UniProtKB/TrEMBL annotation:
The gene is ispE. Belongs to the GHMP kinase family. IspE subfamily. Its EC number is 2.7.1.148. This is 4-diphosphocytidyl-2-C-methyl-D-erythritol kinase. It catalyses: 4-CDP-2-C-methyl-D-erythritol + ATP = 4-CDP-2-C-methyl-D-erythritol 2-phosphate + ADP + H(+).
Length: 300
């Protein structure tokens, strides 16, 4: 018997970043929106903990116990006094090291799959607790939909979404390390009084109403990590311009990057923007996806 869980990627429609805290993390006002690009994690009984991975970028994913999916299985097993003897297979479709929470998705997927496989029957609170230990974005991967993340991003308040949003994601050649982008944020803001991060009420209203134009008008300045990502990966400026030229309503760096996100008016224009981005030669791949998407779900 095995259990397969499907988990969505995310885009941050707002990522307000505060000053570095004493623990090195940054307080955030992080508006997460789950998008319909998915990884699938399959848990199968095994003699010991093993991880395999297939799909684009699979070669960059560690297969040892540092893999976030493996760490999720270890954390759940430890709490229940059992051995994490499981084979985890990750079918990747979320860009690796792309700022779309692919690793976090795999952790949330592994946690839910192992819980079902082992019959540990963890409560939602316990699962969310383990997610928060594993990483700042992991609780949202479990929950999906849309949510405001505060603290380091792990304290979630579910948000209403009043319509569908159509996106294109341009996959860059290469990855960016999230800690490196936060370090660059600190360097760029070394002589600045960084304000407390607060969620934009206008942006939350636009989400709640399904107001695409309203959201589009706020996105260009919504990602506090964008200047740091562009500083480390200047070529992304060309990708952002190419997407706008191809008809996107708004363009931004997704989370810590280097994936770039383009909001479009409907599914058809998303395909047009994706074609324009590919033709521009400023990205490796262009993926179309709609939001909101459900959180981690057992599919078989
Ligand atoms: O929590 P997670 O493991 O995903 O974070 C990865 C890295 O991103 C952290 O080690 C830290 O450098 C940075 N980070 C941060 N502030 C946050 C979230 C992440 O500085 N709120």
């Amino acid at each position: 018997m095995s259990v397969t869980v499907r988990v969505p990627a995310k885009v941050n429609v707002q990522l307000a970043v505060g000053a570095a805290r004493p623990d090195g993390f940054h307080d955030l006002a992080n508006v997460f929106l789950a998008v319909g690009l998915y990884d699938e994690v399959t848990a199968t009984p095994a003699g010991e903990l093993t991880v395999t991975c297939e799909g684009p970028g699979a070669g960059q994913v560690p297969l040892d116990r540092t893999n976030l999916a493996a760490r999720a299985a270890i954390a759940l097993a430890a709490r229940h006094g059992i051995e994490p003897d499981v084979h985890l297979h990750i079918a990747k479709d979320i860009p690796v090291a792309g700022g779309m929470a692919g690793g976090s998705a795999d952790a949330a997927g592994a946690l839910l799959a192992c819980d079902a496989l082992w019959g540990t029957d963890a409560s939602r609170e316990e699962l969310l607790d383990i997610c928060a230990e594993l990483g700042s974005d992991v609780p949202f991967s479990l929950v999906g939909g849309a949510a405001l993340g505060t603290g380091r991003g792990e304290q979630l308040r579910v948000l209403d979404v009043g319509g569908e949003f159509h996106w294109v994601f341009a996959v860059a050649d290469g990855g960016l390390s999230t800690p490196a982008v936060y370090r660059e944020f600190d360097r760029l803001n070394a002589h600045t009084d960084v304000p407390e991060p607060v969620a934009s009420q206008r942006l939350l209203d636009a989400l709640a109403k399904g107001d695409v134009d309203g959201l589009a008008s706020l996105l260009p300045d919504s990602n506090g990590l964008q200047p740091a990502a562009l500083s480390l990966f200047p070529e992304l400026t060309d990708t952002l311009a190419a997407g706008r030229a191809a008809g996107a309503l708004a363009a931004l760096v997704s989370g810590s990057g280097p994936t770039t996100a383009f909001l479009t008016g409907d599914a058809e224009s998303a395909h047009t923007v994706a074609e324009g981005l590919l033709a521009s030669g400023t990205c490796r791949a262009a993926r179309v996806a709609a939001s909101p998407a459900p959180g981690a779900t057992v599919v078989s």
